[in-house]
Amino acid sequence: MTTPVVLVESPAQHVRLLRINRPEARNALNFEVRTRLAAELAAAAREAEVRCVVIAGDERAFCAGGDIKEMAGAGTVEMMQRGVLDLWRAIAACPKPVIAAVRGLALGGGCELAMTCDLVVAGESARFGQPEIRIGIIPGGGGTQRLPRAVGKYRAMRYLLTGDLFPAREALEMGLASEVVPDAEVEPRSVALAAQIASLSPLAVQQLKDVVLRGMDAALDTGLALETKALHLLFAGKDQKEGMAAFLEKRKPRFEGK
């Protein structure tokens, strides 16, 4: 029986962990991995039981990028037919927070995968980069757009144009990582963060993510209007009543996502 290229785990209540499982290829994104990740993210988005998602690789590589062997002989039409954007759209469309647990290499499509997530927990030995320019192509999963937005034009161009890699501490300093921890603590910390988020109101969490992401590409006034409307909308739910009642009664709230 063939080992799945994406393993599905439940490390904590309301937390879904998706593990890329191609160690022989340093977890490179071939068509099968992209398809399975997109499908599992779509499933997590539908399931009320899942409130936060963690994407991980292994100790050597989060994801070393796209599968060069699979792409090397492809033509334009074949690349279009593969639907390589489906994975990025699935992450972007997931209403629940997605955390990248990065150990080892996060290169090319792996770096783009991490940047598409909402939080990035990186190990001390993690290395990031967009080295596509070195093999005669450019990033195709958002690297040319998300990296400048995350770290600024001049820092981004430095790495996009050279293909040089940068370490976890520099990623943190540039704003590309949420936090850096010892390698052995990457997954436990990611799961702990996911569990912390999952313990909060799912409605508020999803509204917050939606407003932040939509507001980033909008004028400030538009973003502020989105924020206000989302806040008002939450007052129609039971979670808001429960959260405020628990605060006044000095107890832990029990959020149901209603």
Set out the fold topology.
Blueprint: E1 6-12, E2 15-20, H1 31-46, E3 52-56, E4 61-63, H2 68-71, H3 76-81, H4 85-93, E5 98-102, E6 105-107, H5 109-116, E7 119-123, E8 127-129, H6 143-151, H7 153-162, E9 165-167, H8 168-174, E10 179-181, H9 186-198, H10 202-216, H11 220-234, H12 238-248
Parallel strand pairs: 2-3, 3-5, 4-6, 5-7, 6-8, 7-10
Antiparallel strand pairs: 1-2, 8-9
Helix pairs in contact: 1-4, 5-6, 6-7, 10-11
What attributes characterize this protein structure?
2-enoyl-CoA Hydratase, Chain A, domain 1; 2 domains; alpha/beta; 6-stranded mixed sheet; 17% strand; 12 helices; Lyase 2-enoyl-coa Hydratase, Chain  A, domain 2
Please characterize this protein's 3D structure:
The chain has a 6-stranded mixed sheet with strand order 1-2-3-5-7-10, sandwiched between helices. It contains 12 helices and 10 strands. It starts with 5 loop residues before the first strand and ends in a 10-residue tail after the last helix. With 258 residues, it is of the alpha/beta class. The mean pLDDT is 93.
Strand order of the largest sheet: 1-2-3-5-7-10
* Average predicted local confidence, pLDDT: 93
Q: From N to C, what is the helix and strand string?
A: EEHEEHHHEEHEEHHEHEHHHH
CATH topology of the largest domain: 2-enoyl-CoA Hydratase, Chain A, domain 1
CATH superfamily of the largest domain: 2-enoyl-CoA Hydratase, Chain A, domain 1
Number of helical regions = 12
The CATH level-2 architecture of the largest domain is identified as: Alpha-Beta Complex
* Structure classification: alpha/beta
Shape: globular
Distance between the termini: 41 Å
Number of separate structural domains = 2
Main sheet characteristics: 6 strands, mixed
Q: What is the C-level CATH assignment of the largest domain? A: Alpha Beta
Assign a percent range to the helix content.
Answer: 40-55%
Q: Please report the total strand number as a whole number.
A: 10
Low-confidence stretches: none
Radius of gyration: 19 Å
Give the strand content: 15-25%
